[in-house]
Amino acid sequence: MTITERAALLATAAALAFSAGTSAVADTSDKRIALSNNYAGNSWRQAMLRSWEKVTGQAVADGAVAAADAFTTAENQVTEQAAQIQNLILQGYDAIVLNAASPEGLNGAVKEACDAGVTVVSFDGIVTEPCAWRIAVDFQQMGKDEVLYLADRLDGGNLLEIRGLAGVFVDDEISAGIQEGVDETGKFEIVGSVHGNWAQDVAQKAVAGILPSLPDVAAVVTQGGDGYGAAQAFKAAGRDIPIIVMGNRHDELTWWKEQKDASGYETMSVSIAPGVSTLAFWVAQQILDGAEVPKDMTVPFLRIDQDNLEENLANTEEGGVANVEYTLEDAKAVIAEASGS
Amino acid sequence: MASQIGNLISPRLLRALLPPLSLAALLVTIFWLQPRTQSYFGLNLLLNLAIPIALATIAQMFILCVNELDLSIGAFVSLCACITATWLNDTPLLGVLALAGLVGVYALLGALIHLRNLPSIVVTLGMSFVWLGLAVLVLPTPGGAAPGWIRSLMTLKPPLVPFPIIAAVAIAGVVHVGLMRSAFGTVLRGAGGNPASLARAGWSILRIKMTMFALAGFFGALSGMALVGLTTSADANIALRYTLLSIAGVILGGGEFVGGRVSPIGAVIGAVTLALAGSFLSFLRLNPDWQIGAQGAILILVLALRVLISRGEARR
């Protein structure tokens, strides 16, 4: 670690301590918050859990809340998580922050929690039960933003779309947003679409399979976790590398940096910061504190552009995802924005 | 050591006592770890999700009883849950017909497996994809709503004893009387134990297998309905875990993979024990990476005890 890095780290730590220190509200110092998480098997979820540990650990040390424990189900199954939520109620937590296995299947357990006086805040994988709070991601806008960026860069051309895991609503939403952007700008045509399952190896195989049948591709729109695989497939086929929109993964950012240094390659990268779990934590703390919080909120994206690539790459650990952790002030801003609209 | 105990109590009795004793031990530990669970409210929350598991376990028990294995019960329960949350709620008649039709298909599966002498593992594994596909067709995105009467039944708050306990006792009691105490029940079990002699005595093994598969389908449908009553809405993948849970539940409750040797009361106890094992590990604050392993360890522990007892039985 260089001296400047260490200084920067100290400064962030100090800022964190400061913001959390001033925010330690006496009203919630005896409250206990639990994280109910349905899956921990990919880099995004691992980063999410690490962010939770870091930020809530500090919050507990500062006395903002009494406890903030993370629970992950052993298997990604609705019935398991429903049982887990019921167990958390029995353990007497005041609030449950929830990344749900199903938007509908947990409603019974969430209702039990609400009836027992437990505050439920869902994020990322949200639940539809009206008594719970939702911090949702506008995935449709994310897809649309990709096409709008391309419209700025290009006069038109063919697009290859890499989709996520079939049947998951996130995949449908992003794809719908991309379609909307294409319709609105009116200068692109989607000439091919494959499922990359948000994984580099799957994306590479899928793109390699469809490439021979495609005309010139001007750009590749993606969902994250698939950009590096797409680049490898293009390279292996000996074709020109189009503009590939990236998804904030370390391998994608590294590849982008190499291309940028070698040939001035330009693109953008967008995804959701795993630190959104910490935003949900502060929102739950605010609700316990008695703040007026609307039931539906939207979380901002984490977008990386040509000029802040190096900075973000330096902050992303190997095999991880670019991340930001949220503070109490960020949570208040998100709440205020949702109240205003 | 087992043989010493065996001299005092008959191994058969000991064997029958093992499932309830393991359940009691687990329950006492949970009460001690988390005193909140001792209340009416606590028991309700602790046990309500065990009811659909118990029903699925009973379904699996009928199949195991005739020497077969059902690897599709989880997907089947999911499908029934999806139908319950959609058709049964919107157009009750269509919903009832669909569920009855599925029970009929189960009976036909029994016939197919018997007549063509197919391995049930292969047939049911294949059917699990059919059930899952149908579930996605019925309910493409998670949703639907539980019919009011199922919801109010599953959230019933009877005085003194929490509903899940009453339901568990009722399920175990009804199936026990039907399968273990009635004359026809004995014939049904006999088809698993010694099909050749039953056939020679003039019973139709085909009809018995169809009956057992239909019963399994019936209890699978009940499981799906109970599950939706608890969750309020369904998801095509909602009960996939039930396949393994139900097999483990039967075995934990004293059943065996060789046919004819099953116990309905034991199966319900086994299902509840498995459901509680999850809560127990969660109250222990065990790292989730270890939880599946720990759940397996509990299973192995109980089965190891049973082997010890069986050895005592054999020595006599």
TrEMBL record, chain A:
Coiled-coil stretches noted in the UniProt entry, renumbered to this chain: none
SUPFAM superfamilies: Periplasmic binding protein-like I (SSF53822)
Cell compartments where the protein resides: Cell envelope
Taxonomic source organism: Halovulum marinum
Protein name: Substrate-binding domain-containing protein
Secretion signal span: 1-26
Keywords: Signal
GO CC, one annotated term: cell envelope
Keyword Signal: yes
Periplasmic binding protein domain location: 33-291
InterPro entries: Peripla_BP_I, SBP_2_dom
GO molecular function: carbohydrate binding
Family membership noted in the UniProt record: Belongs to the bacterial solute-binding protein 2 family.
Automatic annotation (TrEMBL), chain B:
Molecular-function GO terms, alphabetical: transmembrane transporter activity
Lipid bilayer topology: Multi-pass membrane protein
Keyword line: Cell inner membrane, Cell membrane, Membrane, Transmembrane, Transmembrane helix, Transport
Top-rank taxon: Bacteria
Gene Ontology cellular component annotations, sorted alphabetically: plasma membrane
Pfam family name, one: BPD_transp_2
Protein name: ABC transporter permease
Residue runs in coiled coils: none
Species the sequence originates in: Halovulum marinum
Transmembrane segments: 12-33, 45-64, 71-88, 94-113, 120-140, 160-179, 210-232, 238-258, 265-284, 290-309
Main subcellular localisation: membrane
Record localization: Cell membrane
